[in-house]
Structures are given as C-alpha cells and as structure tokens.
Target: DNA-binding response regulator
Amino acid sequence: MIRVLVAEDMHIVRGALVALLRLEPDIEVVSEVASGDEILTAARTSRTQVAVIDIDLPGKDGLTAATELHEQLPEVRTLILTSLGRPGTLRRALAAKVNGFLLKDAPAEKLANAVRGVAAGRRMVDGDLALAAWDTVECPLTPREIDVLRLTAEGRDTLEVAAKAFLSTGTVRNYLTTIVSKLNARNRVDAIRIAKESGWI
Model:
C-alpha cells in the first residue's frame, strides 16, 4: 500500500481528492491537512510515502512545504497540484525538487497514476505543461528581486518591504526599478502582473 498525505485547504476539493484516492486498492490516505504549516509534522507522524500538495496553501505555500519535506524527510515523495498550468510555476516546482506536477483538472485516473509513479521513484509531469515550460523564457529576475516583488505584490509599501527583507528603502526602490526594466513593464503594478502571469511569483 502507498501511504498518502493530502494537503488542500478547500474542504470540498480535499474531500474529493481523498475519496478518489480511496477508490484505489493500492493507495491508503493516512493524513489530511489544510495548511502548509501542518505538512511536515503530519508526514512524519503518519509515515507518509507520497505527499499530494496543493501549490496555494495558507501558511507555508505548497512549494515551500515540498522543499522542507525534501530537506528533512527525503524519503517522502511530493506531487504538486495546481489549477494554473503556467510554465513558470512548473519551473519553480522542479527547482524545489518536487517529484510530480499535475493540473487539478486532470482526469481522476491521472492522479492515481501520478501517485504510483512518484512512489516508484519516477518524475511525473503533465506532458503539455512540460513542453510549454521547455519553450518559455526563464525568469530574468534574481531570487532577491523575486522576494522584493512578491512582498510588493502582497500590498506592502516600500518601508514594509525593506523591513521584511532586511534592506534599506533605497535598495528596495533600486530593486523595483531594475525589476520594471528587466520585465519591460510600465510600472510596478505591470511588473507584478507580468510576473504572476508567468508563474514567477
């Protein structure tokens, strides 16, 4: 039996995922959580083999939680679910060392097969999405610039971003100017839109 943890904050969606997986004779759902902060502890106590994780979770997001699992419980395989098939999101997932990446609107049998695949040590990625990622431009922003833009996208002003990122306000302004330039954006709001649509933040 493959021991599976399901991490999804929307109750109806989580219930549907659990119900689908429980129909499979070789899969056992051993834990269900609603936030990224619960994943590591739940995986450890339930002896999870495969963690099925929604990318957009409250607390730690799905990719942060997957990275934490990879570092602290490397025997646990991770399968990321997302409703947004953006190539940039897939690139971020692969950089986080996830084992699988699946769209939420994939057929039910694809989910079970993806769980089996990652449990067996294979990397399972939606074929169309993989091709799209192959063809897209890599994110031109540095990790630090992405952090600054992500904090700005959360609605923080320059002072708040500076405090959160341990930078001076002048440095934050310089980063934002560079970001706008690199993305050929009209302004910060446009830069945030471009980065979100590309799956970079």
Remarks:
- Residues 2-135 form a domain with the Rossmann fold fold (CATH 3.40.50.2300).
- Strands lie at 2-7, 27-33, 50-54, 77-82, 100-103, 124-125.
- DSSP finds ten helices and six strands in the chain.
- The chain has two domains: 2-135, 143-198.
